[in-house]
Amino acid sequence: MSEAVREAPKKERPEFRNIHVTELSNYRMPLASIVSILHRISGVLMFVLLPFVLYLLQNSLRSEISFAYYEGFVTYPLVKLIILALSWGFLHHLCAGVRHLVMDAHIGLDKDSARKSSATVLVISLVLTALVALKLFGVF
């Protein structure tokens, strides 16, 4: 080897470390990653609450008396909040899933388009959830 190759200064290589739990508040995630994490959370939420929803559906369909019982059960504010959380989970998962399907078709993969589509997913899912909340709490 020549002298110039051996004496060339070596660049400092960047050091990549895993993020520790205590550093999460200092780490700024892009909007697309927040939407992706919320997509996973909403999927888990729907998966975990699915047996509860199916149980309520099964029992409400048994007779008119059981339907009236569960209709009264849904009037409690805590139950309405659970239904609202499940509605948000479904609506966000649906919107983010459509976004992922569009991205699978190689549309909107650049940074600017990904930011816009993730903001659109958040806005649409929150607006739809607000409409469900208004209906659920008897505004219209």
From TrEMBL:
The keyword Nucleus does not apply. Keywords: Heme, Iron, Membrane, Metal-binding, Transmembrane, Transmembrane helix. One of its GO terms (cellular component) is plasma membrane. It is found in: Membrane. Its cofactor is heme. The chain crosses the membrane at residues 37-58, 78-98, 119-138. GO terms for biological process: tricarboxylic acid cycle. Its main location: membrane. Heme binds at residue 93. One of its GO terms (molecular function) is metal ion binding. InterPro entries: SQR/QFR_C/D, Succ_DH_cytb556, SuccDH_FuR_B_TM-su. CDD domains: SQR_TypeC_SdhC. The heme is bound between the two transmembrane subunits. It comes from the Bacteria. The keyword Heme applies. It holds the Pfam family Sdh_cyt. Belongs to the cytochrome b560 family. Membrane-anchoring subunit of succinate dehydrogenase (SDH). Part of an enzyme complex containing four subunits: a flavoprotein, an iron-sulfur protein, plus two membrane-anchoring proteins, SdhC and SdhD. The complex can form homotrimers. This is Succinate dehydrogenase cytochrome b556 subunit. It comes from Duganella margarita.
